[in-house]
Design goal:
The chain is of the alpha+beta class and about 150 residues long. Helices cover about 40% and strands about 25% of the residues. The protein has five helices and six strands. It has a six-stranded antiparallel sheet with strand order 1-2-6-5-4-3.
Length: about 150
């Protein structure tokens, strides 16, 4: 199930403004948080993308005697996809490499979220780079659906 945050989530924003609620794309996972993160990591590695880091915030919280539901961030990328975006707008590098967030909510539902490429486009006022934005959108959508769906 895809949690629709806004109708315009999969549509590139025409204006230069994207609200905070449109900035994330969130999908419900059919797997546990750990399994979702493991699946995502395996998928990106299988596609030849680079895994830069996998941050387990729950474990880090536990290390300082705090409790946190499952919360992991996976940082990954591919220069063949990211570099063209930076050539369009070098300041977009602050949002790269890409990240996904895997969380478990209070009802034990698991979610995978990532920055909406339309948000990144608007945030950095990226012009004349729709082909790159569309490619990034398609890749993120495909990877995320593969990791969350049975």
């Amino acid at each position: 199930m895809i949690r629709v945050i806004s109708f315009a989530i999969f549509i590139l924003v025409v204006s230069s403004y994207v609200s905070a609620e449109e900035s994330l794309i969130t999908l419900e996972s059919e797997y546990s948080a750990k399994e979702t993160a493991d699946r995502f990591e395996s998928i990106i590695k299988g596609k030849g993308l680079t895994l830069f880091a996998r941050i387990d915030h729950k474990k880090n919280a536990s290390d300082v005697n705090l409790e946190l539901r499952a919360t992991e961030v996976i940082i990954f990328g591919n220069p063949k996809i990211g570099t063209p975006l930076m050539l369009c707008a070098q300041n977009a590098a602050i949002d790269l490499p890409q990240k996904v967030l895997i969380t478990e909510d209070s009802e034990k539902k698991v979610w995978l979220s990532y920055n909406n490429p339309a948000y990144i486009k608007a945030r950095h006022d990226i012009q004349d780079c729709d082909k790159v934005i569309n490619k990034i959108t398609a890749v993120l959508n495909k990877l995320s659906l593969a990791a969350t769906s049975k």
